[in-house]
C-alpha cells in the first residue's frame, strides 16, 4: 500500500479524524522522525518514491524534491505560507497543493499584538533588569497613541488591524491587491506608510519579488523611533540593515518571529533593542489543532480529486 508522509515537526495523530480514516483504508502514515524543520535531502529520503500524499510543514519542496518523489500527487500545507513549495513544478507534475490560510490567523495576530505591547512597554527588558537586582522605572508608550502601519491586509493583517483598533490606535495599511480596505483603515502607498507609521508590521507572503522589502532604503523612510514587527516570513527583511538601524537608534525597537535562515544565528541576537522568537506565531494550542485538522481534511479531499481514494 502507498505511503502518506506528515512532515510537520509536531502532529497530533491520535486526534485527527482524517488521518485515522486514511489509516483505516490501509495507508501507511509516516511522521517526521527529526521533530524539526527538514532539510532538502531529509525530505527527499522521507518521501522516497512511494509517497502519494504529503501533509507538509515548512521544509523546502523544491523542483528537485518533487522530481525525486515520483509518486507524489497531493501536498496539503499545515499553515498559510506557500513560499516553501515550488508551485510551478507542482503544477507541471499535476500535484494538487492546498494550505490553511484562515486557521493560524488569530494566533499570529495575537502574537503580533503581544510583540507590539512588549516593544512599547519594554516588558522583556524590564524583566531582565529586575532579575539582575535592578529596579528600573521605565516609561513606556501607549498603543492607543500610535499609528500602526500594516503591510499586507490579508487574513492575518485584518485581524491585527481589529486588535489595534480595539486599543484605539490609528491604523493605515498598504496592500497592492486591494482597492478598498475594511472600515476605519486608510490604504496608502508603501512609502507613505513607512513615513507616517509609528509601528510598522509585516503580514504578507514571501516571494522573490519582495525579498528584502524592508532594506536600508525602506528603513531610511521610517520615522526616527519607529517600532518594527515581522511575524510574517523571513526574507522580507534585510536583517543586517535592521540591526544597523537598531544600533543607531533610528529604529527604537524591533520584534521578529521569522528569519531568512532558521534556526536564526545572525547579528540581531546581539541587539538589545530586538525581541526574537522562534517562529511560534501559529503555535497556540487551539490554532495548531485546527490547522492540523484542516490540513488533513484538505489532504483527504486532494486524494479524492486525484483518484487515490473514494469519497
UniProtKB/TrEMBL annotation:
Q: Which CDD domains match?
A: PGDH_like_2 (cd12172)
Q: Which PANTHER family match?
A: D-ISOMER SPECIFIC 2-HYDROXYACID DEHYDROGENASE FAMILY PROTEIN (AFU_ORTHOLOGUE AFUA_6G10090) (PTHR42789:SF1)
The text of the family note is: Belongs to the D-isomer specific 2-hydroxyacid dehydrogenase family.
The biological processes this protein is annotated with in GO are: amino acid biosynthetic process
Q: Which UniProt keywords apply?
A: Amino-acid biosynthesis, NAD, Oxidoreductase
What are the residue boundaries of the D-isomer specific 2-hydroxyacid dehydrogenase NAD-binding domain, all occurrences included? Answer: 113-281
Which residue spans adopt a coiled-coil conformation according to this UniProt entry?
Answer: none
Q: Which domain of life, per UniProt?
A: Bacteria
- Please report the name of this protein according to its UniProt entry: D-isomer specific 2-hydroxyacid dehydrogenase, NAD-binding protein
Q: Pfam families this protein is in?
A: 2-Hacid_dh, 2-Hacid_dh_C
Keyword Oxidoreductase recorded: yes
Q: Where is the D-isomer specific 2-hydroxyacid dehydrogenase catalytic domain?
A: 15-302
Which GO-annotated molecular functions does the record name? Answer: NAD binding; oxidoreductase activity, acting on the CH-OH group of donors, NAD or NADP as acceptor
Give the species this sequence originates from: Nitrosomonas eutropha (strain DSM 101675 / C91 / Nm57)
Amino acid at each position: 500500500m502507498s505511503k502518506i508522509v506528515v512532515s510537520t515537526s509536531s502532529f497530533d495523530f491520535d486526534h485527527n479524524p482524517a488521518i485515522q480514516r486514511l489509516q483505516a483504508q490501509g495507508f501507511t502514515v509516516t511522521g517526521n522522525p527529526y521533530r524539526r524543520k527538514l532539510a532538502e535531502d531529509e525530505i527527499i529520503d522521507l518521501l522516497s518514491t512511494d509517497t502519494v500524499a504529503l501533509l507538509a510543514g515548512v521544509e523546502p519542496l523544491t523542483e528537485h524534491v518533487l522530481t525525486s518523489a515520483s509518486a507524489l500527487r497531493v501536498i496539503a500545507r499545515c499553515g498559510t505560507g506557500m513560499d516553501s513549495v515550488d508551485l510551478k513544478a507542482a503544477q507541471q507534475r499535476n500535484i494538487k497543493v492546498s494550505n490553511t490560510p484562515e486557521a493560524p490567523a488569530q494566533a499570529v495576530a495575537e502574537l503580533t499584538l503581544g510583540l507590539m505591547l512588549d516593544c512599547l512597554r519594554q516588558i522583556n527588558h524590564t524583566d531582565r533588569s529586575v532579575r539582575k537586582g535592578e529596579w528600573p522605572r521605565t516609561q513606556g508608550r501607549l498603543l492607543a497613541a500610535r499609528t500602526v502601519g500594516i503591510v499586507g491586509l490579508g487574513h492575518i493583517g485584518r485581524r491585527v488591524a481589529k486588535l489595534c483598533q480595539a486599543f484605539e490606535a490609528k491604523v493605515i495599511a498598504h496592500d497592492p491587491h486591494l482597492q478598498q480596505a475594511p472600515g476605519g483603515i486608510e490604504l496608502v502607498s508603501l512609502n507613505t506608510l513607512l513615513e507616517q507609521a509609528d509601528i510598522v508590521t509585516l503580514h504578507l507572503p514571501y516571494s522573490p519579488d519582495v525579498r528584502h522589502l524592508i532594506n536600508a532604503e525602506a528603513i531610511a523612510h521610517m520615522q526616527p523611533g519607529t517600532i518594527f514587527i515581522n511575524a510574517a516570513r523571513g526574507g522580507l527583511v534585510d536583517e543586517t540593515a535592521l540591526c544597523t538601524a537598531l544600533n543607531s537608534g533610528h529604529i527604537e525597537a524591533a520584534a521578529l518571529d521569522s528569519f531568512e535562515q532558521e534556526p536564526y544565528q545572525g547579528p540581531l541576537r546581539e541587539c538589545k533593542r530586538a525581541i526574537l522568537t522562534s517562529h511560534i506565531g501559529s503555535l497556540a494550542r487551539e490554532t495548531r489543532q485546527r490547522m492540523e485538522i484542516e490540513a488533513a481534511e484538505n489532504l483527504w479531499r486532494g486524494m479524492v480529486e486525484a483518484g487515490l481514494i473514494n469519497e
